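Quick one: structure tokens for this chain, please?
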Amino acid sequence: MLRHILKLIWNKKRMNSLIILEIFISFLVVFAVTSVCVHYALLYRHSLGFSYEDIWAIRMEPGGPWQAEDALIVDQAMRVIGDLDPVESIAGLDIAPFRGSTWTSTVKYRDRKVSSMFNHATDGLAELIGLELVEGRWFGAQDDGLAWRAVVIDRQLRDELFGDDPALGQDISGRDPDDPEQSEADESRVVGVIEDFRQKGELHRLRPYVFARYRMGQPNDREMNTLHVKVREGTTAAFEEELLQSLQAVAPTWKVQVKPWAHARQSMLESQLTPVLVMSIVAGFLMLMVALGLLGVLWQNLTRRTAEIGLRRAMGAAVGQIRNQIAGELLMITTLGVGAGVLVAVQFPLLGVAGFTEWATSAWSLTVSVVLIYLLALGCTLYPSWLATRVEPADALHYE
């Protein structure tokens, strides 16, 4: 049977080759879309590592370049906002979650180096956004007066940088103690480890992370003009007007922007998922074209082969055999197209062509893509194969 089907396909190789090419292209497009979807689905399973509900970001920008005394204005604004009735807690965080900006730095321990995301935060941030400590503590007032800077790292950085070694109390700045130009103030010692922190949201790849302590109100060369407040549940946007009025009293010439973290998260999710939606629509139209092409080929074959089918029925072929022959031809054509697509698709994780095509993602994507293409092919065989079984032996007499 298989040999006969291959012979029939070869006899109409020009027409079938176009169908195989369509299936091949459709498979690659479906594989690309499912790879992105599976990649995002696997990422979405992991926790953000923090809470974003009822948290608002307040960005304050002075009229000119940042000056040392501007830190005192931000500190005063922080105290004024903290006294407002709907505000439960307030803290400073340099780069807010769900924003496009990032700060990357290389941290070192002995002979190991890891590229890590970096951020500055004040003492109250851990409580504000619900960071979960794995080891040690969050930095606080007990770190005042120390010659070195206190930092908190996430679990991923601890595992990559320290392995089985203890992380607490270690310097990750890479400072050379024999270099006279580097003082103890250049040290960054780990005081705590938190769960993985995903600054860019659920659909962003896990990255090592470092929080460095920032003392609000201490004039220095570091800009910190973004405050974050946790408001009571049910606080409406009407509170924003009161918030802006309070800040205008402290910094009348400053530009102030207020945006809830939930809104920023929604905007980031939309920006990440819109390309996937567009790709899915394109893939859907492409699969529809392939389905129409397959139906057209089967319909044409059925029309031209009425005599053949009628003769087979006259010679005793059962209805199931006729149906299996029609379905077998299309499934064999589909197999040739899918097989070529699989050979191309497996090259992506091998060559590391795209970041979302690692082996774990590709295995799921290949499985889903193959199943979808075969379901499409099977769906296209239902009606034509049913029509083939309706051909009566006497119909063969009408064809020469």
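The chain has a mean pLDDT of 80.
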